[in-house]
Here is the input.
Amino acid sequence: MKHILLLLFLFGILFSLEAQKKEVRQKYDVAAFLYPAYASDDPRLRPFWPMGIGEWETVMTMQNRYPNHYWNRKPLWGYINEADPTVMSMEIEAATNHGVNVFIFDWYWYDGRPFMETTLDNGFLKADNVSKMKFYLMWANHDVLNLWDTRLARVNENNVIWTGKVDRQEFEKICKRNIEKYFKHPQYYKIDGKPVFMIYDIPQLITGLGGIKETTDALNWFKEETKRAGFPGLELQITMWGVNLNYSGFDAGKNTSPENEFVKTLGFTSATHYQFVYFTNVDDEYPNIADRAEKEWYRIDSIFDCKYYPHVSVGWDNSPRTGHSAVMRNNTPENFEKALRKARDFVDSHPRQAPLITINSWNEWTETSYLMPCNVYGYGYLEAVKNVFMK
Here is the structure.
């Protein structure tokens, strides 16, 4: 009997330790934006990148297009096809082993149909270990200019190839499709049971739908449609940057602001950033930028009624596309790790909201803001995430 009790006692200790380890792994939701342009089997990418490897072409040909340029990054994993489920399985394994447990897919819709969806549909959702990772969508509803095409990127013309604007009919088509296809997927990321859906460009949304009143009505319809699908609601997330908040005509009381009233009117319930470049000067040293970012988190938290989830960018330098850029300097893995600790402290000080941190990004190579291992820092950025959120 004593032996049985001892075994039960030891089993209880082991069970407790395993539960604690599981709790540590799941304490924070670290979500990295994923840009789905690094695919080899999407025919709609070829007009921009005719080699057939997506925007890897921009990375691969950088030194050919700009000989002796300082930018010379190479992926340690090679020019992989992220729309291949085997490849994505490897990426999921690497991400989750280093503390990244959510991918936020940049999601596009142009010319009446989805664009760059193969990485999500054929790669991520068909990976054999997809159950390890959550995902949600950020609707990147901006116009497509000639910036993606390396043959035209240096031409100083804002030629609109596709517009991100949609009317009400198209909007409802998009929402119904995403509810059925993605929100109902067991790996879709939810907060309090509500699917999270992020919208990138609010002016585009408002212009396409016909005005603020019409946009508010459309977003309310979207929330109700999500409820009709069996969810308790919709976690509607705004991409926080100046362009998205620059609207007049909203009265503010003593304890609020026009920007807050604008966000409340549209019905957004949470916010995060997409990139440091959207709210501060990035032609600077990374520690200075990270300090300004931290101040911005707390400023937003004090002004807006919606929940704010802190954002950390790995870096910024989009010269692979155009040959020149503002450059975020000294964005070493060590300095990146310090910024992540600031974000973790912010989350810890807000225990009543989801423990969500967003990172730009998993793979924005042509903007030099990626977690994936490279020839310069190796696995340094991923190790930084692991040090902060898993150790």
Summary: The longest strand covers residues 102-110. DSSP finds 14 helices and 13 strands in the chain. Confidence is low (pLDDT under 50) at residues 5-11, 13-25.
